[in-house]
Amino acid sequence: MGSSWYLDETEISSYDPGHSSPDSLSFNGKLFNYPAGSMSSLAEKGVVYVDSDPEEDDDLNVPDSTCGGHGILVRSDPKKTTFQIVNTRIHDENKHVIYCVMVLKKDVGIDKDQVTVERRYSDFAALYKTLRKDLSSLFKDIEVNFPGKVIGQKNNLNPELIESRRMALQDFLQNIFKHKEVRQQQAFKEFFFLPGLREATDSLKAGELENCLELFLNSIHLQVKLCDEVRETVATFGAIVVVLEAQGKLEDAERYARAALELNHDDYLSPYAMPLLDTLAKLRRILQMEKKTIVRHLSELQRMSGIEVEDTFTLRELAVKRFEKVK
Question: Less crowded by CB within 10 Å, the N or C end of the chain?
Fold first, then answer.
């Protein structure tokens, strides 16, 4: 097998510096012109493009622009990720402050996918404590200013204190994110997107499709922007395919399956490679789309691995078992 997936009669692959780049690109049926050679800079930033049928784009009813012809950032420069605590509010019942953190990606154009998480000061403090313990040598070498605790609920709710903490916590996130060791830490992922992924998985098991789709979409934006591992990002895309297929949104499911395969690239050992190819082939058959190239790749993968698709987990099984502990 080559290093590219063949989704149609024409090859859709990652950018090859040896070939000339296009001067225009279709985003959901709209043609955008680019200066000559500018596409190479996008490819270097890890942008994967999934072409879509302009006649079908109006039917894309998914509140998300990561797929469906839009660029998917998978190897973005962490220096281009920014954090903004856009607002704060006082929780009426427990009288604590909620900080709304927005994660923005500025690699290509304007980030229109505004994704936020809400966290308490204690969540930030727990992250700081864990990172300082697990990455003690790193934290000795870098300067991290973390706002300390204050005694008394009345003091915690002081507007001036809330504003100073807002600025300090925002700087804290920006400072630690520069370091790859931090981004790879479980505690960092727990702070941002793992709780949402677990909740989405539980909702999927319970058949709460609308709720789990919203959670999965929010999580995938965070994973992409925060440079999560590609396999984990592919896993979330696979779960989104499962939900969309269950909702009967087959065109949307087909697009997300394509995006997942492009992200997976030539990782043929991924447990998602064969189920994604199988699912995409079935979706294309139902949608009466070209599928012979997908079927060919599926057959080649079965031959190379010595495993039949019937003996692998389905996408749904992978999605619901994702966070089950290995016994």
Answer: C
pLDDT of residue 75: 55
Say if residues 277 and 254 touch (Cβ distance below 8 Å): no
Share of the chain above pLDDT 70, in %: 74
The 10 Å CB-count burial string (b at 16+, else e) for 165-202 is bbeebbbbbebbbebeebbebebbbebbbbebbebbbe
Amino acid at 230: V
Percentage of the chain modeled with pLDDT above 90: 58
* CB 101, CB 84: distance < 8 Å: yes
pLDDT in tens, 227-259: 899 899 999 999 999 999 999 999 999 999 998
CB of 86 closer than 8 Å to CB of 100: yes
Tell me which amino acid residue 39 is.
M
Tokens linked to 5: 């997936």
Mean local confidence (pLDDT), 129-156: 86
**Domain extents for the chain?**
73-185
Enter the CATH code of domain 73-185: 3.30.1520.10
User: Could you tell me the pTM of the whole model?
Assistant: 0.78
Sort strands 30-33 and 81-90 into parallel, antiparallel or unpaired: unpaired
Whole-number CA gyration radius for the chain: 22
DSSP string for residues in 156-209? HT-HHHHHHHHHHHHHHHHHHHT-HHHHT-HHHHHHHTHHHHHHHHHHHHTT-H
Comparing C-alpha atoms, which of 4, 39, 77 is closest to residue 258? 4
Amino acid at 251: E
Cα–Cα distance measured from residue 61 to residue 145, given in angstroms and rounded to the nearest whole number: 44
The token pair that represents 221 in the structure block: 């934006």
